[in-house]
Amino acid sequence: MENNKLKERYGLFTAICMVVGIVIGSGVFFKAQDILKYTDGNILLGVLAWLIGGVVMIICAFNFANFATQYVKVNGIVDYAEAAVGPRYAYMTGWFLSTIYFPAMTSVLAWVSARYTLILFNPKADITSGLCMALGAFYLCAVYAMNILSPKLAGKLEVSATIIKLIPLAVIVVVGTIVGLFVNGQTVDAFVSASQNMGGDFTSVFAGIAAAAFAYEGWSIATSINSELKNPKRNLPIALVVGTVIIMAVYILYFIGLTGGASVDVLIHEGSPTAFKNLFGNVGGTVMNVFIVISCLGTLNGLMLASTRSFYSVAVREYGPAHKTLASVDDYTNMPSNSGVVALLCCGAWFFYFYAANLTAPVFGVFSFDSSELPIITIYAIYIPIFVMFIIKEGKKNIFKNIVMPILGIIASLFMVFVAVYAHGVKPYLAAAAEGKFAFPVLFYLIVFAVIMAFGAFFYKKKRI
């Protein structure tokens, strides 16, 4: 027997853990290194990038928390798009989430989980090797199977992984900061050096913010289970606001704490594993890296949880291809199994793309772009019409919540789009032009985006009942 309704199974604590657990994962560990590279080792500019990215996240999360008190159906973002803009926009938003956003993010996390697993056994492991790809594919399939066959176990893993992943962050925040301030003075040196070089290229912060966007992304994924939350109109807003504030504080403190374990130059070239070993020795550093692997797998689990429900959230509205099949919920597991299978195939396709595009000689040539960051920025562009229409429809009810905060959300979202165009368009174009070459990654991403969205639009027209 099959039905089309999901059960309420998650409480407030699980929801908060999901917000914190999905966001805090791989991003904070390897994007911290990228941000230092983009800002030329300037710790102050790096902190500024984390701060701006965090403020954008909190503003949007506050708006979503407000939406959550009014709209509940099957998938937060799609619900809000439908209520504010209309069914066609909701369908296209759901299609984007299902075919690009969720699978692209999930595939990146599968690769990152494999990457840190290999580094655990061999610090000099080739993270673009076939072994890395095979392990990533295994993780992808294993987490998918757990989410489809035992969603309660997946929820417990999310809670456990959240607690475990906070351990290395908390230790670095406390030990790294104390050592950097009072023992070796490296944190002090980093800030003194940064303050003396603040006249540099401030636009480097833009690239840092784009990198931070990946590390911060994921909070909105918690809205994908709002129909499975107990008392969602109360619990989801609390989870979003509390979770995002915790995340920003942890990220900034962790970023500063790293400087106690290694100099900025070392962090740029070797990353956080070296800082761990310097602070805790080889054994302690290895233990900390084990926590990182668990952290990455916890994030992968949360993303797969959302991916398996993504096509369901579209199909249950009777839109898209094979919507009757994709909207079915298995009576035994109470999970949208058919939706999950299609989601796994999409994740596999994006996993192959991410791997092939990051080889020394990218398989796709000029059509190679960063699938870990550009889909995230796209979601901010999608928020804008939702904020605008929400103001028009609900603005009179509450000036602060329904007008002021959505306006700030629009400004924040537009800023993120600008950052993406600069970091993935203007900057690489200027660098390539200096060598007589052409590069404009964001343009090629938009071409891929347009093709996939046009395909989805065709099915909305042909398959709607």
Structural features, described:
- The protein has 465 residues and is mostly helical.
- It has a single domain (2-463), classed as Amino acid/polyamine transporter I.
- 76% of the residues lie in helices and 1% in strands.
- The protein is built from 17 helices and two strands.
- The chain has helices at residues 12-23, 27-38, 43-68, 76-84, 87-121, 130-149, 151-183, 186-196, 204-216, 232-258, 264-270, 272-315, 323-326, 337-357, 374-394, 399-433, 441-463, and strands spanning 2-3, 329-330.
- A two-stranded antiparallel ribbon has the order 1-2.
- Helix 4 packs antiparallel against helix 5 (87-121).
- The mean pLDDT is 84.
Keywords:
465 residues; globular; Amino acid/polyamine transporter I; mainly alpha; 76% helix
What best-fitting shape do the alpha-carbon axes yield? globular
Mean pLDDT: 84
Question: Helical amount among residues, as a percent range?
Answer: over 70%
- CATH fold title: Amino acid/polyamine transporter I
Oligomer: single chain
C-alpha end-to-end distance: 23 Å
The CATH H-level superfamily is Amino acid/polyamine transporter I
| Number of separate domains | 1
Strand segment tally: 2
Sheet-strand content, in percent, reads under 5%
Task: Assign the structural class, choosing from mainly alpha, mainly beta, alpha/beta, alpha+beta, or little secondary structure.
Answer: mainly alpha
Q: Please give the CATH class.
A: Mainly Alpha
Q: List unreliable stretches of 5+ residues.
A: none
The main β sheet shows up as: 2 strands, antiparallel
Number of helices: 17
